Task: inverse folding
């Protein structure tokens, strides 16, 4: 149930970030660059995850396997990073207070979801602790 609520909130704030608020942007190129990087990170995560582990909810599938190659070699949550970058790109394009609020709420939901998912992985797979020591959560070599 917790996983479903987190996913609902994630998609709600993602949707709210895409609403056409305002009509001018002085940061079109930078905003599109951030959106593009977010898209590339998402595609790399999906490509590395092509064995069928992908689950939109943070719940662990019965027959899941830990992915430690591709982008997962450097960060544990590339899909969350992708969503954060896509949201940030929208804020850069439309830097209005309400957009910043939606983005902040989205980040909070993703962080809660990330920690919840990690707690499930630790219970499910002993080798996850070692994986956590070798990788960072969202930013390679930093966090």
Result:
């Amino acid at each position: 149930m917790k996983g479903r609520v987190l996913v609902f909130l994630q998609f709600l704030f993602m949707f709210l970030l895409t609403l056409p608020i305002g009509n001018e942007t002085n940061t079109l190129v930078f905003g599109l660059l951030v959106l593009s990087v977010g898209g590339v990170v998402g595609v790399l995560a999906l490509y590395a995850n092509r064995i069928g582990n992908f689950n939109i909810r943070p719940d662990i599938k019965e027959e899941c396997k830990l992915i430690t190659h591709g982008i997962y070699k450097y960060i544990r949550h590339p899909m969350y990073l992708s969503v954060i970058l896509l949201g940030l790109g929208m804020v850069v394009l439309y830097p209005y207070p309400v957009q910043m609020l939606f983005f902040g709420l989205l980040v909070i939901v993703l962080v809660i979801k990330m920690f919840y998912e990690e707690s499930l992985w630790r219970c499910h797979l002993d080798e996850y602790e070692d994986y956590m020591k070798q990788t960072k959560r969202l930013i390679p070599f930093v966090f």
